[in-house]
Amino acid sequence: MTDAYTRFVRSGPGRFIASRAGLPRPAPLPRRGDRPEPVLGPVVVLGESEGADAVAHLLLSWGADVRRRFEELRTVGSVVAVLDEVSTPSDLGRILLPLAGAMRSLAPGARVVTISRPARGEDPARDAARGGVEGFLRSLAHEMRGGATANGVLVADGVGLDAPGVTGALRFLLSARSAFVAGQFLTVSREAGSATGDAAAPLAGRTALVTGAARGIGAAIARTLAADGARLVVLDVPAAGTELSRLANELRAVPIQLDVTSDGAGDRLISFLRERSLVLDAVVLNAGITRDKLFANMTPQKWDPVLAVNIASQITLTEALIEAGDVLGDQPRVVSLASTSGIAGNRGQTNYAASKAGVIAFVEALAARLEPVGGTANAVAPGFIETEMTARMPAVSREVARRLNSLQQGGLPVDVAEAISFLSSAEAGGLRGETLRVCGQNLVGR
Ligand code: NAD
After folding, report:
1. What is the pTM assigned to this prediction?
2. Distance (Å, rounded) from C-alpha 170 to C-alpha 164?
3. For residue 196, what are the CA distances in angstroms to 111, 168, 228, 332, 416?
4. Summary mean pLDDT of the chain
5. What angle (nearest 5°) sits at the alpha carbon of residue 108, between those of residues 102 and 112?
6. How many A from CA of 276 to the centre of ligand 1?
7. How far apart are CA 221 and CA 227, in angstroms?
């Protein structure tokens, strides 16, 4: 789905006019169908630590064309800068500056990924170096061209660079699955999780529930999880029953018509699962609504349903699933839908932003609640995604929202779905209470 402006500036006359007038010229973003291989080669691994050697070996085991220098390379597909042992800010230039000379050789859709450790407030020089990686990466991401992206993995002290979460995050960020993720960090805080047996079907043998699955992002999540091998339970309101049945038939999924805000929704879901002997390995809390109004015009009719669907239902459903004791699998993954509005706020969305900021705090607390059973909870915060929800925005605000990110375009529902698939996987166990933005490095917020 390409918007009309993007189609125009990719046409002959449009390209000429846009280049003369300095207008945004969004590049095509390769997605998994365009680029199925896990790593675009050749991949250059920068860094001098044992961790850098281990990452180079990992990439070799994935069949990548791995180099340790840029020398003689005319095109570079990916760069992984391993900065796990930096101890003073002057270490950064030694490892990173070789990339400066290679920036113009990056292929369309290239990937740059840093691997570093988070600052801990203990060692001033080391923390300055570690913090410096974040500033570097976020700025570099704004300078990427041709649909290329830059992102980082932060690995807590004590967690090895070979932990499942690090491997999974690296695989996700290097692949075309992270097409609309730019300027972001994923923090791996635990060794927990288990390696993926089959990278082509990372969710094989797992059962996932997706709420709000009848259309939009929810339908894309269901399709992507199914393509990754999951068995699905798809949920939506009775009014969306026809679309839900169609999707369930397409994916051989089990449909359940349920309003997540209705009284006893949790009990009905649990009975439904028990009757069919279904045990959930992943729960994707996607159902969401907007009722935008300036706060001066806000009423309970606009406020209450947004808080009820977007956050209160998530609390009651997850609480019921945990309390039931027999409907969640080992090491369950909960993934919830936040929004960049919940991070940066948005005019006319006090109700929506309250609910989505609530989601961000909720997953942190829920991750702690699930930790004793080896489970985890995380959120994905989409920026501007091309769906029916955003198609209803006023035309000018929609066009501005679409361009205000490093990739100068809206994302697709599948981009959100890809991030959710990774966070639903067995590998993602070391990521706890994270909120991953899928926003093309939207200029709002951090
Ligand atoms: P959408 O309106 O296209 O789809 C939402 C789905 O949720 C619908 O199928 C709807 O029937 C279902 N739903 C609503 N209330 C429900 C209830 N009470 N019980 C069960 N199902 C219910 O929206 P979308 O754009 O696909 O958004 C999906 C999620 O992503 C939402 O949580 C939304 O807040 C979030 N999000 C979207 C964007 C975007 O740009 N589209 C950006 C940030 C966050």
Report:
1. 0.95
2. 10
3. 22, 8, 12, 15, 21
4. 93
5. 55
6. 26
7. 10
Task: Give yes or no for residue 289 CB within 6 A of ligand 1.
Answer: yes
Measure 313 CA to ligand 1 centroid, in angstroms.
13
Is residue 286 in contact with ligand 1, taking CB distance under 6 Å?
yes
What are the pLDDT digits (tens) for 288-340? Answer: 999 999 999 999 999 999 999 999 999 999 999 999 999 999 999 999 999 99
Q: What is the pLDDT of residue 374?
A: 86
The domains of the chain, with CATH numbers, are 26-188 (3.40.50.720), 207-438 (3.40.50.720)
Cis amide leading into 42 (omega within 30): yes
Q: Is the CB of 180 under 6 A from ligand 1?
A: no
* Overall average pLDDT of the 43-69 stretch: 96
Q: What's the CA angle centered on 1, arms 240 and 171, to 5 degrees?
A: 95
Which region among 202-206, 371-375, 407-411, 430-434 has the lowest average model confidence (pLDDT)?
371-375
Quote the CA–CA distance of 58 and 78 in Å, as a whole number.
Answer: 14
Place of tokens 């699905």: 232
Beta bridge partners of 188: 155
Report how far residue 212's alpha carbon sits from residue 258's, in angstroms, rounded to the nearest whole number: 10
Token readout for 20 is: 């003369």
* Distance separating alpha carbons of residues 248 and 239, to the nearest angstrom: 15
Nearest partner of 44 among 141, 113, 116, 120, judged by Cα: 113
Whether 302 lines ligand 1, by a CB cut-off of 6 Å, is no
The residue type of 139 is: S
> pLDDT for 201-220, tens place per residue?
999 999 999 999 999 999 99
Residues identified as active-site: 352
Report the pLDDT value the prediction gives residue 198, as an integer from 0 to 100. Answer: 81
Distance of CA 139 to the CA centre of its chain: 19
Gap from CA of 389 to ligand 1 centroid (Å): 8
Closest protein CA for atom 2 of ligand 1: 389
The pLDDT of residue 200: 84
Cross-strand partners of 255: 234
Token pair of 289 as six digits: 């609504």
Per-residue pLDDT reduced to its tens digit, 214-247? 999 999 999 999 999 999 999 999 999 999 999 9
